[in-house]
Amino acid sequence: MADHYFNRGSVPTLGGSDVGFQFIQVRPVATAVGHDPRLGETSGGNRVGSPRNRCRGHRHTAAREIVDAEAAFGWLGSDLLLTATKLRWLQAPQAAPPAGYYYPELIAHSAVVTNFREIFDDHIGAHILAFVLAFARGLHIFIPQQFRREWKKSPSESGDVVHLPEATALIVGVGGIGSEAARLLSAFGVTVLGTDARRTTAPDGVAELHRPEALDQLLPRADFVILTVPHTPASPVPRWMSTNRSRCRATIDCGRCRTFC
């Protein structure tokens, strides 16, 4: 592994006592480009060391430091996992780690793996709404025309405009981001359909919640299709172009590109 940082210190618990720990951050060689300067700052009485190496030759250092680490942040390959004899917690570096992050040995390990789920709900929910508003008003057509100094009227009075109170959006993946997008869209009068593998009740703003298996039946009803799901072996990757989407004005992918193409 390329960059690693480790920290020995104590963490206050709810009961007031301190728990000693060792923490290590591990990154794959392919993504080790720079680091967060805040890692060198003191926080909560604990000093997090700055990165001291950036090349493949220091892989053994990460293996040495993780031997008695109880917590780790980043990518942990199977070779390092074998040496992590005290590991109890692994924090994934993304909300939805890409395919390959989880592997059989890690899945079977007793350590708890957590991610950054739901920390970007408001930002990405607003980003999705911005795209829907732009496509609904035809800005993807009119703005390029304006740059070309082409002042063309729409072939029909409302041909390039979607009236949102009469529109339907299908959100594939109604987790934190999908739920926030549904709330914002419903405030504009959009009828929101959702599919989700985990939810059993529709959150605020979702008119209909379905299992992922209903996707093919829901796609023809959608003016906008919004993807928020991560790429997993169960992701509905190849079906988009084979399903009738003649009504769809735009597909907005805020998940992983391989869930669409």
In short:
Helix content is 23%, strand content 20%. With 261 residues, the protein is of the alpha/beta class.
Describe the structure.
The protein is an alpha/beta fold. It folds into 2 domains: 4-114, no CATH class; 121-259, NAD(P)-binding Rossmann-like Domain (Rossmann fold). It has helices at 59-65, 78-83, 104-108, 121-136, 139-147, 176-187, 215-218, and strands spanning 4-12, 18-26, 42-43, 46-47, 71-74, 89-91, 112-114, 168-172, 191-195, 208-210, 224-227, 250-253. The strands form 3 sheets. A 5-stranded mixed β-sheet has the order 1-2-5-6-7, with helices on one face. Helix 3 links the parallel strand 6 (89-91) and strand 7. Helix 4 (121-136) packs across helix 6 (176-187). The chain is elongated, with a radius of gyration of 23 Å. Residues 1-14 and 29-57 have low confidence and may be disordered.
Give the class-level CATH name of the largest domain: Alpha Beta
Tell me the CATH architecture of the largest domain: 3-Layer(aba) Sandwich
Secondary-structure class: alpha/beta
Q: What share of the residues does DSSP label as strand, in percent?
A: 15-25%
Strand order of the largest sheet: 1-2-5-6-7
Which percent range fits the helix content?
Answer: 10-25%
Number of strands: 12
Number of domains: 2
Enumerate the spans where pLDDT stays under 50 for 5 or more consecutive residues: 1-14, 29-57
Major pleated sheet? 5 strands, mixed
Distance N to C terminus? 31 Å
What is the radius of gyration? 23 Å
Shape: elongated
How many helical elements? 7
CATH topology term of the largest domain: Rossmann fold
Taken in chain order, the helices and strands follow as: EEEEHEHEHEHHEHEEHEE
